[in-house]
Amino acid sequence: MSTTPVFAATNAQDLRAQSAASRAAARREEIKANIQARLDARKQQVVERVQERLSNVNERRTEHFLKVLDRLSAILDKIESRTEKAKAEGKNVTAIETAIASARTAISSAQSAVDAQKGKTYQITVTDDGTAKGEVEAMIKQLHADLKTVYDTIVAARQAVQNVYQQIKTVVGSTKDATPSAVTP
Prior knowledge:
Elements: H1 5-88, H2 94-118, H3 132-172
């Protein structure tokens, strides 16, 4: 049984249609891959930008914390000189000296926490496009938690200096050259 010319034309049209459909499908796949490559490149740029911002935030905050600690140390130095004057006047300053030592320890502890934080880097490693958002969010939360921990040590140091100030105020009276209320972390 031979095919009639009508069926042969239909088969040829079917072949051309299938060929066109397969070419269109291949073209769609090519376009989809091209779009996916662009999206991957864009996601990579976004991740790099977020990573850079995390680094900048960490640097800015640690620099601020270092300035706060410097101010706290300067205030403590002023209080210490005032304590020496009170000691020379014959007043009992042993509690103040103990509080000063405690405040110096708190400042030293906060200083080491800031130095450790300054040395940290926040590398975002994207293993899968679907998990990229979660990994970025996790790294942001980690930076926030680390900075909060450092902040808490600075608040403790500030509180220790405030305690010294309150003690010297009771022993010596009002001190005009040592006001820790100007320091806010």
